Amino acid sequence: MSTFQNQKAVVPQLGVVSTSATSATTQDCLGFSRVIVDAIHNVASNTSASAKWTSLVLQHGATTDVSNFTAIANMTGTTEATATTAQFVLGEHNDTVVGSITRFFVDLTGKERILRVLRQASASYHSTATTFQLFRGGSSPDSDSERGVVSSVAG
């Protein structure tokens, strides 16, 4: 039996990453014990052009001050040429219809309350979005706005 209690969805505004620049999205996770973070990358411009991130890091911190964040162990993505054993290699895609998703599954135990997704995209592939699916909250949201959705239906 599945349950839809104690969950919250957050979809921050669509972001843009300039070539050779970084962009970040933060989310307060206070009161939740698990989160799924999706870093969404726009489609490739053609089937022979690999759209990709050049770096993607999931960080945590006690406040939203940029200097406060530290990378979460094993959640730093980079290119194959620069990857260390503590990093993962970012995927590439050539799909001109569907964007790509890099998904992080995070146990928030022992993490600070604010998560930050820091990203950089290669030339011509810079439209991004990030979603946060927060689970196991202390109390169940009573309204759609508290759940982070426009409307919800259960059956």
Structure characterization notes:
- This protein is mostly beta strands.
- It has one helix spanning 144-147, and strands at residues 7-10, 15-16, 23-28, 34-41, 51-61, 70-78, 88-89, 92-93, 100-107, 114-121, 127-135.
- The strands form two sheets. Strands 3, 5, 6, 7, 8 and 10 form a six-stranded mixed β-sheet that branches. Strands 1, 2, 4, 9 and 11 form a five-stranded antiparallel β-sheet that branches.
- The chain starts with 6 loop residues before the first strand and ends in an 8-residue tail after the last helix.
How many helical stretches? 1
Run of helices and strands: EEEEEEEEEEEH
User: What overall form do the CA principal axes indicate?
Assistant: globular
Mean pLDDT: 81
Cα end-to-end separation: 12 Å
Topology:
Elements: E1 7-10, E2 15-16, E3 23-28, E4 34-41, E5 51-61, E6 70-78, E7 88-89, E8 92-93, E9 100-107, E10 114-121, E11 127-135, H1 144-147
Parallel strand pairs: 6-7
Antiparallel strand pairs: 1-11, 2-11, 3-10, 4-9, 4-11, 5-6, 5-8, 5-10
Which features characterize this protein?
6-stranded mixed beta sheet; about 160 residues; about 5% helix; mainly beta
Concise account of the structure shown:
The protein has 155 residues and is mainly β. The protein is 3% helix and 45% strand. A hairpin with an 8-residue loop joins β5 and β6 (70-78).
